[in-house]
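Example 9 (inverse folding). The structure is encoded as follows.
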């Protein structure tokens, strides 16, 4: 008789976790976002990436403190259940794992869009094929998943470094401090837009129970991933504007392909398509992995049925949670155009960021003696300053959300509360704050 393993496989070190963070941050979105951001900020678009990176760091530091206190696959659910009532913690976990499933579907469809550049087929067919592939990888366990993620992340970084390298000789041809017809208001508007290019840094925390020495490794990996991604984004923004100018970049339908076409003589679209295929593969795998670990952590805490914490005998991967994440993502793929539905992910991220920053503040008063291997520096009358800045950042960025995102996000919260009530009625979910 095969004995079921009870714990996830602690196989990850600093660089594997950092690679996961970089892999999920640097998706294919930057290849499009940079054009829209340049239209708003002009040659100063690089400042927008600097600002968005700094704003991300505030909440990133809050995550780092909580990850060092509660190194759990339950991630945001685990953090918030120590500071808020159990229904709030469940809601936070619910919107995160559903948002990750939707994100996996949206990114898989993006893969399909780029795949048709080489082999014509419906986007949905390619997306479902990708989901099947990454699900098989995820089911083999974190060791193989991490090895693939590391390779793909290196290629993703290499792709952006290639853009920087081919554009570097042109740096200096454009005044990067010029407003280009836009003021600093344009830079702030662009920062709100490209803030979404940094979203995903928080998902490394779901790997806490598969990481060696997580109280030290997870905070360091999270902040390293943010720093590496920010440097790459700023470098790409500077070189892209330098190669073709702000006005042409801002009007380009496929901005980075347009930049590479200018340098390589027409081969840019193929190069960008290859890089985007790799980026979307990695991001889809990481979304499925993060969603499954979050469900596993919630089940281990008693907030979801115990079946969600079932591990494979050899892989020690949460097989039920992986299967559910992939099945739900596949269902969303069949919906087709996810532009509107995917906006729920934006709402979910902001709501969770609010909960995380508030949790850091509340726990400084509720559990002042709790060990904090990583601690956000600076406080005023025991109130930590950085989480407050993180809250301010979120509320500054909120107006950038579409009203449809707010409406769908509110509906998702309603479904989450209904699920919580149903589980409570069945005697599940009684563990919490």
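The amino acid assigned to each position is listed next.
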């Amino acid at each position: 008789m095969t004995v079921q393993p009870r714990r996830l496989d602690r196989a990850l070190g600093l660089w594997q976790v950092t690679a996961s963070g970089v892999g999920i941050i640097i998706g294919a979105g930057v290849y499009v976002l940079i054009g829209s951001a340049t239209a708003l900020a002009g040659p100063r678009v690089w400042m927008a990436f600097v600002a968005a990176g700094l704003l991300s760091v505030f909440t990133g530091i809050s995550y780092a403190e909580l990850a060092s206190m509660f190194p759990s696959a339950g991630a945001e659910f685990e953090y918030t259940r120590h500071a808020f009532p159990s229904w709030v913690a469940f809601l936070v976990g619910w919107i995160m794992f559903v948002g990750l499933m939707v994100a996996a579907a949206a990114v898989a469809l993006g893969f399909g869009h780029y795949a048709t550049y080489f082999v014509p087929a419906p986007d949905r067919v390619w997306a479902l094929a990708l989901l099947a592939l990454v699900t098989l990888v995820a089911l083999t366990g974190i060791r193989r998943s991490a090895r693939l993620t590391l390779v793909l992340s290196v290629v993703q970084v290499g792709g952006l470094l290639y853009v920087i390298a081919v554009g570097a000789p042109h740096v200096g041809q454009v005044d990067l401090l010029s407003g280009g017809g836009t003021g600093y208001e344009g830079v702030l508007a662009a920062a709100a837009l490209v803030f979404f290019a940094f979203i995903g840094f928080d998902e490394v925390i779901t790997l806490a129970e598969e990481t060696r020495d997580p109280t030290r490794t997870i905070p360091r990996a999270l902040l390293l991933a943010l720093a590496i991604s920010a440097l790459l984004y700023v470098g790409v923004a500077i070189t892209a504007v330098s190669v073709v100018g702000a006005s042409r970049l801002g009007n380009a339908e496929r901005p980075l392909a347009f930049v590479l076409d200018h340098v390589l003589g027409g081969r840019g679209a193929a190069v960008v398509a290859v890089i985007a295929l790799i980026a979307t593969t990695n991001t889809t795998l990481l979304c499925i992995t993060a969603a499954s670990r979050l469900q596993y952590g919630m089940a281990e805490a008693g907030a979801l049925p115990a079946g969600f914490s079932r591990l494979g005998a050899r892989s020690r991967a949460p097989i039920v949670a992986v299967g559910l994440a992939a099945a739900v993502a596949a269902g969303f793929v069949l919906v087709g155009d996810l532009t509107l539905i995917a906006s729920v992910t934006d709402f979910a991220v902001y709501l969770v960021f609010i909960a995380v920053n508030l949790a850091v503040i509340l726990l400084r008063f509720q559990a002042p003696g709790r060990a904090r291997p990583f601690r956000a520096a600076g406080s005023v009358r025991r109130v930590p300053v950085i989480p407050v800045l993180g809250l301010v950042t979120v509320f500054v960025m909120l107006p950038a959300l579409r009203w449809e995102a707010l409406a769908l996000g509110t509906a998702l919260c309603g479904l989450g509360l209904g699920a919580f009530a149903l589980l409570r009625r069945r005697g599940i979910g009684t563990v919490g704050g």
